Structures are given as C-alpha cells and as structure tokens.
C-alpha cells in the first residue's frame, strides 16, 4: 500500500504532536471536499459566480483555513507535555519559594486565535498562562504555549477555552496551581442596514476571562494577586476581570441573547445555505446538535448575507461636482487656489473574497478644494466607504472603487489610503498578528504630483486598529 | 514500498509549498542525527554531562529547531505565488492609479526571523513589503508574507535577505516594482570577560536595509517617497536607511571585521567543537566553504564558550550581611524599622539549555533594609546576575540562584523577578513573537507576606525588551 492510500500515516512534529501526513496536505480529503462543496453553496447564496477567477479557489482556501484552524481536536495534551518535564531544584519551604518548588512562572502575551462557536468567525486572544511548580520539576516554557494553542484551535467560547487550558495544564504538569487569563476580541461589524445610524460603532466585543486551579482555585488567593501584579503592566487590573460568572451571557455579538440582534434582515435565511453551514460544522468533527452550536449555522449565514452581491451601483444623484471654478458676478471664470483637505479615519468593514474572512480598518481621503469645507460631508463619504465595503472584496479593488467614486463626487483630484487588518493574515498558517496592509489609489493631480501625495500621507496620524492594542481602554 | 521507506513523499501545505512528509517528522533523518551528534560534541566541549536529564533531549531539540528554521531552502517561490495571482481592474492611466494598475500595496510589520550566517544565532526581522501592480492583476496578500518567510528561513545576512525577497517577488508577480524594507535586530551580548567594564552595553545590533526593483530601482524614486510616507508612522525615516552600501561591513557583532572582536578569550578554540559546528552547516544543506560561512563555526563556538560549565561557585568574600540589627553605643541591640528597597532592570543574558538559544531580559531585586541605601551596590548585584546568566540555564533556576545568593548578601528577605524574552519562543515552530516570561523567587518575609510581594511588584515600571519595540530610538 502506497503513501497516498494511507491517510493516517503519522508524523511527529517538534512538539510531539502527531498529525496525519495527509491531513497536512488536506487537499482531496473527504472532509475538505465536503467543506468545499458547502462553501460553493454559500457563495451561490450570496449571488456570486463561483467560476469567477477570484473565487475559483475560495472554497478550497476556506476549507483549508477552517481545517488548519481546528487542528486542536486531534492534539493530545499528554503528547505535548510528555518529555518536557524537567527536574529543577527549589528552595527549602522554610526559606522561600523559587525554581522547581513554588516559584511562580508566567508566560505573557501569547497571541492565539480561535473560531467562535456561536458564529464561526475567528476571534483574537492575548493569552497569559502561569503556574506554580511543585515536586522539584518545571515544564518547558514553550509547552505552555503549545497546550494553549491546542485548545484555541477549536470552535470555542472564551470561558471554556480558559477552563480547558487550565485543566489540561493542571493534569499535564501536576503543579501547585495553574492560572489562565485571556483577553479576547471578537469583531463586531455594524449592521449593513444601520451603518448610517451608528456612527460611534464599537468595532470589537471584548471580554477578559480567567481560570485557576490549585493555589489559584480561589479567586481571592494571594497567588492571583502576584499574577495580576505581573499583568498590571498591561493595563489589566483585577476589578476588570469578569471572573467565572461571565459564562452566563454569550459574548458573541451575533448571539441574540446578548440583547443585540444582529441579522441582515434581508428575509428568511436560505435553507440551502443553513444546511451548507451545518455540514461544515460536521466536517470539522463537531456535533451540530451540541447545545452551543444550534444557532451557529444561521448566525454564520446571517453574517455572510451582509456581503451579498447586490449588483446595485452607487447612485450619485446630482452630487457630481464640477471643477473648482468660480464665476465672478461679471462672468469671469477663475480657477481658485486649491487647498488640500482630508477626511481621515473613516472606518470600513469588509469580507476577504479569497478566504471569506473579515478585514477592516480605516480609509483616509485627500482632495483639493477651494471652498475650505467638505462640499459633501463626512457622512456621505462614510456611506461610500460602507457601500463598497459590504461585499466580498479585495483591498486593492476597494481602494480603486472608493477613489473612482469619490473623484466624481469631489472633483477629480483624489487620493485614497486604506489601512487594514486582515483576519486571513492573522489566522490560518500565516499568523502574522501584528501585520497590516496599506493600499493607495490616486486620481488626477495626485497621480503626477509626488509632493501632493506626500502632503496627504503626512497629514495622517499614527495608525492602530489592532484588536489587542486598545484593550485596556475599552474593556 | 511503505510510507516509512519513502523519505520524499510530498505533501502540499496551504501555501502550495511542498515539504517532504518525513521532513516534517525530522526525527531519525540522517541530517537530524548528524546534527544531534554534533550538538553532543558541543555540549561536551562546554563541560556538560550530556546525560543530565535537562540536556538529554537538547541535541534533538537543537537539530529540529535548526532544520525547521531553515526549511526555506526547500521552498520554491513559483510554488508559493502560483495560483495566487488574481485579475483586478485598474484605472485608466490617464485618470490615475489604483487596483491592478499602479495602486501601491504595502504589507507592514511582518515578524520574521533568520539564522545569522556569520554566527548561527537567530536574528529578528520586522519586514515591510510593497509592490506596484501592473497588467490588471494583484497577488494574494499573504503570499508576500510567505515569500519573505521562505527566504528568511535560511542562513542569512540582512541585505541579501532583502535582495532575495525583492528579486523573488519581482520574478513571481512581474509587477511595476517591488520594495522591501527590513528592520533587523541581532542580539549583542556583553563579553563574559568584560561585563564589569561595560555597564552601558547595547543589547542589540540593529540595521535597516532596503531593496527595490522596477519603479523602486532608483532609491530617489517618487515610489520610495510614498513607501516611506507609509513607514513614517513606525518611526522610520528615509535618512536612517542604510541603503544598499551597508553590505560593505558585516553587521554581526561576532564578526571580527566589524571592529568589535567578540571572543571568549578562553584559549584556542576546541578543534572538535569547530568540526562539529562545521558539520551542522553541512547537515543544513549549506556549503561550509562558502565565503560568508568560513568563520561561522568558530564564531558559533566562541559564542557558546561564554556559557561553559565552570563549576566555579560564587565566592561571597565576607559580603554576607547579618540581620538588620543596630547596636547602640550603650550596647542595646535594636531591630531597625526596615524599608523596601529595590534594584530594578539589572540586565541579564543567558543561554537556554533546552535549545541552545539565547534568552535575555532584566532582573528586579527587592529587599528590606533599614540603612536606606544598597549596602553592597548595584554593580555587585549586576555581577551576581551575570555570573549565573553566563551558563546553560533555565529561567526558573536562574531565579532561584539569584534569590539564594542575593539573600545571603542582603540579609534574608529578598524577592527576585526576572522578565525575559526567549529566542526559543520566537523562532522554531512556536513563533510567539510578542511573548515574554516572568519568574519569581522569594526568600524570607516575601514568601509569607503577600503585601510585601505586591509592594515590590508594583514598584516595577512597565517592561519592554522586545527587539523591535525600540528600533527607532537606537537605529
């Protein structure tokens, strides 16, 4: 029997985790093919042509991303920790605590991501893990990260994730105690129907959860005080922690019980799409009838429907602006001296058509005008941005579409800069958490005048939409 | 023929890169075994017992880390980019530039790491890649990251890395131009022999390099101005760039031609260790006689020899301090009211004994004293830290050793916090770039008094030793 027939030939990665060789390929496996077929149904439900070149491989990309993002189901903690427990002297208890007896060890700021079990959209995690060694032994530091990752790479809820990491490390290391603190950020798009109304929309649902065992079992324990003292530097203070009771209410913005009904309101959900989303859960090895997953297919479909292909064109309704000419009362036409004007930090939300994953950030628009004021107003520009954002997109196209449209609104000389975080660069195999993407579109004078471009670009303040970066201020 | 006999059965990862199935296992492959044997020779040369439990699997871990960190040799850019070029409309050139024609695309802040070809120690990279699309097509954004990573995962020099990424993307995408900007940080340890003399030691050698093709070919081109305007937010300005001429001088602190001779000066290098390091290069698929690699084995061995097992014990030479008692002139003994004193941010440098990779950061020491001043001085504490740092270590042990020693110097009640960045958490399969590790050791009063611990921990200012974080201020 050759390799290709043997889907379960195991190879061992550095972490001692066994992965099937074929799984790493993924392509052609029945589960992958099933997800691909489901994604085709979803794309068709969005009114897309699945044979369009940009979408041709999207089903395969989505299937691989989902399967790679859920490899945790196949990983065993015992395999990860085994062979990474090392003898290490401690101090005599009468003297103090350090090393392999009682010396607190904390690994901070591990970047992880999970798929939200309520809506199937990835959420970001800053994970802090600590433990207190016992019995003159310590665990290799990287194993704390490996174990956390094995549980993150599943369909998850923040509190369950914290509990599972905690319990697994407790069993694997058998220490005096384990502490897990997770800062989770879930994208929270404005509703496509209501984006005009909600100009102060908060882009992230955030939750801070903890789980503790042993000396961390009691949330008032001194061990937690030490742990939080080490977290304080990161803007986290004890009173902000939603200790274990936050399981009561689902944090996902797509969950109706959260009091925020998020739905495309475009009519009853397409049963074919719901069935397709359900089959995706099954292909990932999940049980779609598990209590927490019952509403997931319809949440996911509702979300996707925000990006359906409407074929509407943006109607400019007489907003088209002429050149910046000014007619004096005597009939003389004068070209006014024009000044650079900007509308900065217009938020946008979109869906990557290659991976069906969100990307979002800000749009900056620069233009020349003699009037000194924006002739059409920030809110109209914001709706142009939303109009093109709420589609299956690529950032390059979004830049072009906004530049073209705004150019006809504002009179020809327009520059657009889009700065975005792409979920597809953070999750999947890439995991470039801090990365972000800038694209530029220029029309008219900006395309030939480097000084004009530079003047615009230098008017833009520093950019930070990273999910984790502003956690402390909005948690 | 079964799978196990076929070392070259290819599986395709998400990025289209073919990796041999067995390579992913690595264990047992001839190249891995050869590196393991070489690492045993190196450990013995350091005076270590290769059968000590903490070191037992070190040869295998080092071999896997090195091979995983150099998988780039086997990746083909064509395979990565193929299938990820998408048709995308642009604007008419007469109107402007956007989308698939001329709209600059920049992916910023990709975290990468490479092995320095001069000394075989990993260095960190913040990579910024841009290109100007041409011919109505764009490339999937993640491929810019994949291609950069394929060249980073080799033995590298910053300028060559920039050139290779640039040239590969240019050939793969055939755009109007490619721009690559790399911020590289190479650990620059103080010499074990001279750490007393160099209290202002800079922990990082840093270099900023760029490479451009097409519209970025000329470094004065307008395209570069646009690119740098987008970088400005990150503290990089044009005049800080060592444009292509920086190849003249090697940046690696271990290279004698840089004017900084870094050597353990512990006598002539052990020929067996040099031969072992040379065989590692060969096992990674490199040619040890390549010009840039000629000195690498001896640089690597010189570096390692800083951490040799000396079996010296730290001699306290009468520095042992008694209790904080004070004898009045009338002979009455009074226990003074003691206050918390701290010595913060003592730098340390060490070598992880599990992976033979550097870890480094700061040590904070808290103690109680009635005198109001440090009775032994910061420099002695700094040398205690260096004494225990310059060994094959684990952070937990380092905390214990420093706590124990300082406790005998400063009178019993001591708390030690070590905050560290571990190269082994950044490179290899983990790649948790922003992560850092805190360990605590407590002696005496601190082990029973949570308020004392908390008082100490809260006296410590925010921590940031990340290589990239302070690039702009020291470049």
Describe the SSE topology:
Two copies of one chain form a homodimer.
Chain A: E1 10-12, E2 18-20, H1 21-25, H2 30-45, H3 58-68, H4 77-81, E3 85-87, E4 96-97, E5 105-116, E6 122-132, E7 137-139, H5 141-152, E8 155-156, H6 158-173, E9 177-187, E10 204-214, H7 222-231, H8 271-283, H9 296-305, E11 325-327, E12 333-335, E13 339-352, E14 357-369, H10 378-389, E15 392-393, H11 395-410, E16 414-422, H12 423-426, E17 436-443, H13 445-448, H14 450-458, H15 471-474
Parallel strand pairs in A: 5-8, 13-15
Antiparallel strand pairs in A: 1-2, 3-7, 5-6, 6-9, 9-10, 11-12, 13-14, 14-16, 16-17
Helix pairs in contact in A: 2-3, 2-8, 5-6, 8-9, 10-11
Describe the structure.
The structure is a homodimer of 475-residue chains. Chain A is of the alpha+beta class. The first copy, chain A, has two domains: 40-88 and 101-306, GTP cyclohydrolase I, C-terminal domain/NADPH-dependent 7-cyano-7-deazaguanine reductase, N-terminal domain (GTP Cyclohydrolase I, domain 2, 2-Layer Sandwich), CATH 3.30.1130; 340-459, GTP Cyclohydrolase I, domain 2 (2-Layer Sandwich), CATH 3.30.1130.10. Chain A is 31% helix and 24% strand. Chain A contains 15 helices and 17 strands. Chain A has helices at 21-25, 30-45, 58-68, 77-81, 141-152, 158-173, 222-231, 271-283, 296-305, 378-389, 395-410, 423-426, 445-448, 450-458, 471-474, and strands at 10-12, 18-20, 85-87, 96-97, 105-116, 122-132, 137-139, 155-156, 177-187, 204-214, 325-327, 333-335, 339-352, 357-369, 392-393, 414-422, 436-443. In chain A, the strands form five sheets. Chain A has a five-stranded mixed beta sheet. Chain A has a five-stranded mixed beta sheet with strand order 15-13-14-16-17. In chain A, strands 1-2 form a two-stranded antiparallel sheet. Chain A is globular and about 100 Å long. At the A-B interface, helix 1, helix 3, strand 4, strand 5 and helix 5 of A face helix 1, helix 3, strand 4, strand 5 and helix 5 of B. Strand 17 of chain A pairs antiparallel with strand 4 (96-97) of chain B.
């Amino acid at each position: 029997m050759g390799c290709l027939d043997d889907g379960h030939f195991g190879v061992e990665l550095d972490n001692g985790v066994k992965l099937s060789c074929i799984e790493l390929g993924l392509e052609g496996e029945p589960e992958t093919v099933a997800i691909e077929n489901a994604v085709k149904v979803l794309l068709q439900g969005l009114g897309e042509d699945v044979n369009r070149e940009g979408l041709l491989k999207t089903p395969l990309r989505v299937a691989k991303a989902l399967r790679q993002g859920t490899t945790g189901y196949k990983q065993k903690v015992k395999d990860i920790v085994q062979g990474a427990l090392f003898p290490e002297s401690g101090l005599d208890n009468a003297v103090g605590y350090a090393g392999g007896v009682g010396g607190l060890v904390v690994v901070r700021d591990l970047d992880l991501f999970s798929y939200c079990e309520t809506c199937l959209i990835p959420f970001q995690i800053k994970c802090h893990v600590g433990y207190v060694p016992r019995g003159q032994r310590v665990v290799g530091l990287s194993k704390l990260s490996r174990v956390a990752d094995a549980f993150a790479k599943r369909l998850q809820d923040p509190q369950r994730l914290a509990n599972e990491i905690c319990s697994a490390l407790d069993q694997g290391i058998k220490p005096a105690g384990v502490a897990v603190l997770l800062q989770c950020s879930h994208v929270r798009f404005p509703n496509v129907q209501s984006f005009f109304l909600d100009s102060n929309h908060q882009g992230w649902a955030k939750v801070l959860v903890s789980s503790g065992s042993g000396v961390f079992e009691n949330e008032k324990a001194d061990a937690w005080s030490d742990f939080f003292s080490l977290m304080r530097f990161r803007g986290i203070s004890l009173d902000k922690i939603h200790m274990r009771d936050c399981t009561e209410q689902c944090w996902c913005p797509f969950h109706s019980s959260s009091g925020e009904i998020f739905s495309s309101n475009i009519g009853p959900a397409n049963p074919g799409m719901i069935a397709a989303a359900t089959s995706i859960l099954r292909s990932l090895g999940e049980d779609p009838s598990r209590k927490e997953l019952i509403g997931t297919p319809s949440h996911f479909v509702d979300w996707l429907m925000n990006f359906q292909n409407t074929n509407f064109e943006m109607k400019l309704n007489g907003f088209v602006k002429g050149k910046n000419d000014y007619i004096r009362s005597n009939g003389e036409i004068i070209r006014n001296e024009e000044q650079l004007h900007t509308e900065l930090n217009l938020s946008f939300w979109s869906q990557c058509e290659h991976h069906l994953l969100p990307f979002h950030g800000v749009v900056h628009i620069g233009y020349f005008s003699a009037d000194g004021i924006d002739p059409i107003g920030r809110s109209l520009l914001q709706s142009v941005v939303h109009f093109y954002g709420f589609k299956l997109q690529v950032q390059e196209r979004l830049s072009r579409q906004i530049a073209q449209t705004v150019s006809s609104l504002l009179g020809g000389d327009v520059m657009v800069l889009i700065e975005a975080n792409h979920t597809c660069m953070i999750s999947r195999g890439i995991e470039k958490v801090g990365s972000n993407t800038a694209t530029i579109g220029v029309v008219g004078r900006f395309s030939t005048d480097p000084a004009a471009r530079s003047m615009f670009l230098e008017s833009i303040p520093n950019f930070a939409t990273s999910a984790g970066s502003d956690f402390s201020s909005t948690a």
